[in-house]
Amino acid sequence: MVIRKRTATKKIGVAISRKAKGKGPQKSPEKWIRTTVMIREINHGKIKSITYWEKKGIKEVVDEALKLYLKGKKSKPLPKKK
């Protein structure tokens, strides 16, 4: 009987892409923030299909889509809380 210990990986400040697995953690130039969103089921299916065929993670596919959507858009700063 072989007992294997799991090794913990630090996730703070380090982003690991599927392509970078095995090469060690790659430092991300931008900070990531965790959030929860609701999306339509049809869009989720399309995203899952893209992640499979392009060998990417959901995070990467959604990030690319958001970059394309936000490109060229102007935004005003949010008002300060009182």
Quick overview:
It is built from two helices and two strands. It has 82 residues and is mainly alpha-helical. It starts with 13 loop residues before the first strand and ends in a 12-residue tail after the last helix.
Question: Could you characterize what this model shows?
Answer:
- The chain has two helices and two strands.
- By secondary structure, it is mainly alpha-helical.
- The chain has a domain at 37-71.
- Strands 1-2 form a two-stranded antiparallel ribbon.
- It is extended and about 55 Å long.
Question: How many DSSP-defined strands?
Answer: 2
Span between termini: 62 Å
The computed structural class is mainly alpha
Strand order across the largest sheet: 1-2
Helix content: 25-40%
- Count, helices: 2
What is the percentage of strand-forming residues? under 5%
Average residue pLDDT: 80
Our Rg estimate from Cα atoms comes to 18 Å
What profile does the largest beta sheet have? 2 strands, antiparallel
Q: Which sequence of SSEs, written as H and E, runs from N to C?
A: EEHH
Low-confidence spans: pLDDT under 50, at least 5 residues? 9-14
User: How would the global form be characterised?
Assistant: extended
Give the topology:
Layout: E1 14-15, E2 26-27, H1 41-53, H2 58-70
Antiparallel strand pairs: 1-2
Question: Which short descriptors sum up this protein?
Answer:
single chain; 82 residues; mainly alpha; 2 helices
